[in-house]
Amino acid sequence: MNYASDPGITLAYIVSAVLFILALRGLSSPVTSRRGNQLGMAGMVIAILATLAHPGMMLGGVGLIIVAVAIGGTVGAVVAKRIQMTALPQLVAAFHSLVGLAAVFVAAAALNAPQSFGIGTPGHLRLESLIEMSIGLAIGAVTFTGSIIAFAKLQALMKGTPITFKGQHYLNLAIGILILVLVIAFVASGGSQTLFWLIALAALALGFLLIIPIGGADMPVVVSMLNSYSGWAAAGIGFTISNYALIITGALVGSSGAILSYIMCKGMNRSIINVLLGGFGTDSGAGGPAATMGDKTVKSGSAEDAAFIMSNASKVIIVPGYGMAVAQAQHAVREMADLLKAEGVEVKYAIHPVAGRMPGHMNVLLAEANVPYDEVFELETINNEFSTADVVYVIGANDVTNPAAKTNSASPIYGMPILEVDKAKTVLFVKRSMASGYAGVDNELFFRDNTMMLFGDAKKMTEEIAQSLGK
Amino acid sequence: MTPAELAGQAAALAHKASILAQNAAGFAAQEAARGPHGAPLIDLFAVFVMAVFVGYYVIWSVTPALHSPLMAVTNAISSVIIVGAMLAAGLHGDFAAHAFGFLAIMLVSVNIFGGFMVTARMLSMFRKKTK
């Protein structure tokens, strides 16, 4: 009477896993992506129906399931409908935390009712199931608190600056070893409830401590990494309950998050270890205002000046960064671009891999503002076009344009791939003040002759430029 | 065919049958040793390793422009952990198992609906130039 021994049900799980793979495959192009997402939904429905077909499913249990799905589903649907696209990173972090906590709960349920999963009887669980269960539990708990902290930082409930203290890494290491010891004791005990919850507590603390030292702008890496963890946690639970759909999906999600973390790290020329140890950008602002730069002067201009320069250009490249998201300026940017195009100016967008707070953040914001995706280019594609551009409009980005990454080997951002905006004839920088970027490094671009600073709120400034263009 | 030959053949067959039965018993014992799920850990592990590789190649083919929807949809599909939660809530078990199952279903349902819907919302915004 075990569900996995029913070939029909197992087959259904395999079908749903294949549909999930196709869902991810669809994302290779925006054209196929929507169909991919539908296949993913179909996969989920099949997995759920297959589980309902389990011969031991009780009527009351089905009722319980329906109520739980109705409550959770309603919350999820409302959130998905209402969420602003600028708030996506924190939404994704919140979603990761839910998968983490769910993994903890499923592990707890498996400990309490092992017979439901065919892994033994209470107090007498199979050895390998106990190991698998504790892996799912520990990763799930780390994912949960880690994602909560990431959410709090992204939502600005917590300061984005890294929180560091002496001996932090040793403390984390000690907790890691403690978890390992507890897991061994838990497995040896044959499934002690006390040890189970001690593992959970230690892992919850570890998740919290791992993320607090990581600063706001490193969040793209953190969010991708937690994405990866949530996958491994799901795979761990998949092993515990011998379910192919879970194991395959967990592996897909785990490697997806790992690859995204890798891409993000490469975008900053930093190792994943360096990011995880945290503390980067702690002395941001130390680079200070322009006053400390002594004799260097900055040329600043008005919206009218910017409008004049851009309307006389034949090619303008727009470089958006996190500041555009904060100011919600994406719609204003698109309106400005439309007016420029109406005057016969060629407009393109250049996206740095780590722009924003999650992978692909800028692309979604521009898409939201109805910017066609074939006007938006990645760093490698567009970098050699800056030399042919008359104007680059940098809005809310800073470090990713800093030539110091190529020229100054002492700079903390040295080696980071940058958008070579300095090659354009004129660079327009929309910035609120002269404060340095996240990495705490001054940007020499600000002081160049062909740079014009546009001081002000990104959205307001862009709207004013659009107004002058419209005249 | 003499009765003696027939008896001899019957005996040979009976011997073969007993060997087969012994083999079958051996296999059954092996199956039982694997636990009620039938799939030994190493098989599950093989599937896992293959899936990691499939994931590796599929994810690298995802266009960077769609990395945000990728995160949202991987989030939604990792909620297939609902399978475990449903077994906990729906099968015969103690109160704790039902309660944990119920809570877990509620949490991942937020993800399933929220994840797929927000992905769909994002993807619907990606449009080509209209000329």
TrEMBL record, chain A:
Taxonomy of the source species: Bacteria, Pseudomonadati, Pseudomonadota, Alphaproteobacteria, Acetobacterales
Organism: Acidiphilium rubrum
Database matches in Pfam families: PNTB
Protein name: NAD(P) transhydrogenase subunit beta
Residues in NADP transhydrogenase beta-like domain copies: 10-467
Domain of life of the native organism: Bacteria
Compartment(s) where it occurs, according to its Swiss-Prot or TrEMBL record: Cell inner membrane
Assigned protein family: Belongs to the PNT beta subunit family.
EC number: 7.1.1.1
Function: The transhydrogenation between NADH and NADP is coupled to respiration and ATP hydrolysis and functions as a proton pump across the membrane.
Membrane topology: Multi-pass membrane protein
SUPFAM superfamilies named in the record: DHS-like NAD/FAD-binding domain
Primary site of residence: membrane
Sample GO molecular function, one term: NADP binding
Reaction catalyzed: NAD(+) + NADPH + H(+)(in) = NADH + NADP(+) + H(+)(out)
Keyword tags: Cell inner membrane, Cell membrane, Membrane, NAD, NADP, Translocase, Transmembrane, Transmembrane helix
The protein's assembly and partners: Complex of an alpha and a beta chain; in Rhodospirillum, the alpha chain seems to be made of two subunits.
Membrane-spanning intervals of the chain: 6-24, 36-53, 59-79, 91-113, 133-158, 170-189, 195-214
Record bears the keyword NAD: yes
UniProtKB/TrEMBL annotation, chain B:
GO terms under biological process: NADPH regeneration
Catalytic activity: NAD(+) + NADPH + H(+)(in) = NADH + NADP(+) + H(+)(out)
Membrane topology value: Multi-pass membrane protein
Main location: membrane
Annotated signal sequence range: none
EC annotation from Swiss-Prot or TrEMBL: 7.1.1.1
Entry keyword Transferase: no
Subcellular location: Cell inner membrane
Residues in NAD(P) transhydrogenase alpha subunit C-terminal domain copies: 45-128
Entry keywords, A to Z: Cell inner membrane, Cell membrane, Membrane, NAD, NADP, Translocase, Transmembrane, Transmembrane helix
TM stretches of this protein: 41-60, 72-93, 99-123
Job of this protein: The transhydrogenation between NADH and NADP is coupled to respiration and ATP hydrolysis and functions as a proton pump across the membrane.
Name under which the protein is recorded: proton-translocating NAD(P)(+) transhydrogenase
Protein source organism: Acidiphilium rubrum
